[in-house]
């Protein structure tokens, strides 16, 4: 059963389609990386899929009532600003709201598990607004994890994180997939996407131009036509490496 199904999803600004008739499915056990240059439609696609903005076509999530949708998918937007003077633990606990306000053992276990997953146990009582930008980003990821939804949708989740935290976050997503959850995440780092995603979807000017295994999607032809990169593809023991040689005119 798919965690997300999109058929012909289209989002317009005026008469111009920003996302143009995209079909997409994400299944349990997958980490699907959404790639494309700036303005390709990655964020708009996810927001349209969630019903946060008006869209045409079919989205299995947007069709759900709000609380059911929040139980089906956790959303981590690009905006990492924390405006509330809550403790880290209380902010992470907000991820449990779709499940009620009972403070049950299951709620407490989910909150503690999310704090541990993002290495935030020692920050639990600290005010979230007093943390650094990277630490706040980890708090918001933990809030999404505490939701325990079958699908995590994360828009540029590793932006602003240090290299170790970036890799740890993507390894965490891989663990979610091994636990039969699904992840759809937009990324800009092509090498991290190639190494940590089970599947990649490439957007350009709002259209899906490739969908498949990383080595197929990140072909020399696609890198040239979509990203304007002259790049060599190198197979290593650790996986596929994209070695940019220059920018094409």
Automatic annotation (TrEMBL):
<feature type="domain" description="ABC transporter">
    <location>
        <begin position="4"/>
        <end position="230"/>
    </location>
</feature>
<protein>
    <submittedName>
        <fullName>Iron complex transport system ATP-binding protein</fullName>
    </submittedName>
</protein>
<dbReference type="InterPro" id="IPR003439">
    <property type="entry name" value="ABC_transporter-like_ATP-bd"/>
</dbReference>
<dbReference type="InterPro" id="IPR003593">
    <property type="entry name" value="AAA+_ATPase"/>
</dbReference>
<keyword id="KW-0547">Nucleotide-binding</keyword>
<keyword id="KW-0813">Transport</keyword>
<keyword id="KW-1278">Translocase</keyword>
<dbReference type="InterPro" id="IPR017871">
    <property type="entry name" value="ABC_transporter-like_CS"/>
</dbReference>
<comment type="function">
    <text>Part of the ABC transporter complex HmuTUV involved in hemin import. Responsible for energy coupling to the transport system.</text>
</comment>
<dbReference type="GO" id="GO:0005524">
    <property type="term" value="F:ATP binding"/>
</dbReference>
<dbReference type="GO" id="GO:0016887">
    <property type="term" value="F:ATP hydrolysis activity"/>
</dbReference>
<dbReference type="InterPro" id="IPR027417">
    <property type="entry name" value="P-loop_NTPase"/>
</dbReference>
<keyword id="KW-0067">ATP-binding</keyword>
<dbReference type="Pfam" id="PF00005">
    <property type="entry name" value="ABC_tran"/>
</dbReference>
